[in-house]
């Protein structure tokens, strides 16, 4: 194996020794030095050793060189520990009267990615405008004319009608595996609110890229505190589906998806422990995460579920028939699987450029800082998932296929499958990773990202269709 090379941060630190220009290591607050208030030697900090051929970072002094005899670690936040971004002292110091200030913005401005980001935004906006035009045409022209004509017909003529109007007695029939769907929707709501608030705070500058770990710390804390929303949404929808096993619903909401993520993360952490990597999360931190989960998130989920079950289920605008209507033979494009596969293409087209920069920041040791672009792409993604799913839902209802509950979730959720395929392509085409441990770590962490993205996008598609279906059937005059 080739010897590991120090990160460019340390090279910049060495530059401080030989010149009068200094950059502070992200994660540490800048300190000003002046003659009137001199603080003595300037302590330089180092991060870690890593390589383009491995995702296993190591402590800076793991190989017994440049070891600092007087180690004094600065304080670290939860996000730094989870990401393995620990900061150590180095034996190098600089005694100078040069004022030391933050020059992080200079590094950020020098990165030539803004043109590509604007291209990404314009590409996403074109997709959104196209979908918005399609939805507007359906809502304002086709649906309006259909509803007006249907409401003017007598009962016998209405029975001879075909299309989405004929399945009004079955469209709100509870879905199969309603408990699992409600659990996914509760967790998806939690992830959506967490992501929105985190990116919004990052746009305002509260979560600067110079503060390593702040983004992850904010996301973890928000996820813990938003257990109430997950429990409430899951319980309310499960009651709407006619479910009665409320205890099982609450337990699954609190433990299913977080449990899958934690088990995956723990297994990846075991590999890091075995390899002696500095990215391994200490046992005490794992205990602290479990304490946050079981001590705060789970009780809050129970509280949310309590209020959710106290509320009545959401009443459908039309009555459901006792005998299910037979679904006619479907064409290839109106069958569930082709529709689900097509549904994820446009949302993925909105994010794939942004996804490249995100993967670079995670695996190629680059700094991601354009949170304004990311927040805008996030909003575009939500809109695109909603509109694409509503369009496909309308086409399926016109084909008299009323099984829209799960299909609406899976249609936009299938975007996560394209994300996984892109991650596989990125691994083989952009990275130079070798070794079984690094490969397992890459795909293990990618699966966590894919699962969270699947739940999030699926939830956006479901609630859009839920609103759409309730809206169009609430204006029908049905005896």
TrEMBL record:
Membrane topology, as annotated: Multi-pass membrane protein
Domain of life of the source: Eukaryota
Transmembrane segments: 118-140, 183-207, 213-238, 250-274, 286-309, 340-363, 369-397, 409-428, 440-469
Entry-linked InterPro entries: EMP70, MFS_trans_sf
GO biological process, one term: protein localization to membrane
Membership in a protein family: Belongs to the nonaspanin (TM9SF) (TC 9.A.2) family.
Protein name in the entry: Transmembrane 9 superfamily member
Gene: LOC107744512
């Amino acid at each position: 194996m080739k010897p590991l090379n120090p990160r460019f941060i340390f090279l910049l630190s060495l530059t401080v020794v030989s010149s009068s220009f200094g950059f502070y290591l992200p994660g540490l607050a800048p300190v000003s030095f002046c003659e009137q208030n001199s603080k003595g030697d300037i302590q330089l900090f180092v991060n870690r050793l890593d390589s383009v051929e491995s995702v296993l970072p190591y402590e800076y002094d793991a190989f017994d060189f440049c070891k600092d005899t007087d180690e004094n670690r600065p304080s670290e936040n939860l996000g730094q520990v989870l990401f393995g971004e620990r900061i150590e002292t180095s034996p190098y110091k600089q005694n100078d009267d040069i004022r030391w200030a933050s020059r992080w913005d200079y590094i950020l401005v020098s990165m030539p990615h803004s043109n590509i980001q604007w291209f990404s935004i314009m590409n996403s906006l074109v997709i959104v405008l196209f979908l918005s035009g399609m939805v507007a045409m359906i809502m304002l022209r086709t649906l309006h004319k259909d509803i007006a004509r249907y409401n003017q017909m007598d009962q016998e003529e209405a029975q001879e009608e075909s299309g989405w109007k004929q399945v009004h007695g079955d469209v709100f029939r509870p879905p199969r595996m309603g408990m699992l769907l409600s659990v996914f929707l509760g967790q998806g709501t939690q992830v959506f609110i967490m992501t929105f608030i985190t990116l919004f705070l990052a746009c305002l500058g509260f979560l600067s890229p110079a503060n390593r770990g702040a983004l992850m710390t904010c996301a973890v804390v928000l996820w813990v505190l938003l257990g109430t929303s997950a429990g409430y949404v899951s319980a309310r929808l499960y009651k709407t589906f006619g479910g009665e096993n409320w205890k099982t619903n609450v337990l699954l909401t609190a433990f299913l998806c977080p449990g899958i993520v934690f088990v995956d993360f723990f297994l990846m952490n075991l590999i890091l422990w075995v390899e002696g990597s500095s990215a391994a999360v200490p046992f005490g931190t794992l205990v602290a995460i479990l304490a946050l989960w079981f001590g705060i998130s789970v009780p809050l989920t129970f509280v949310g579920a309590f209020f959710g079950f106290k509320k009545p289920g959401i009443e459908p605008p039309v009555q459901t028939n006792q005998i299910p209507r037979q679904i006619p033979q479907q064409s290839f494009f109106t069958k569930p699987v082709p529709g689900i596969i097509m549904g994820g293409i446009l949302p993925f087209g909105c994010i794939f450029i942004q996804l490249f920069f995100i993967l670079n920041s995670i695996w190629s040791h680059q700094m991601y800082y354009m949170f304004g672009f990311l927040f805008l792409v996030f909003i575009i993604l939500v809109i695109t998932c909603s509109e694409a799913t509503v369009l496909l839902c309308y086409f399926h209802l016109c084909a008299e296929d009323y099984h829209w509950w799960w299909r609406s979730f899976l249609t936009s959720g299938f975007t996560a499958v394209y994300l996984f395929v892109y991650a596989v392509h990125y691994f083989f085409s952009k990275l130079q990773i070798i070794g079984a441990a690094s490969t397992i770590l890459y795909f293990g962490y990618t699966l966590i990202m894919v699962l969270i993205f699947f739940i999030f996008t699926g939830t956006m598609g479901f609630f859009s269709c839920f609103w759409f279906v309730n809206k169009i059937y609430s204006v029908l005059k049905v005896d």
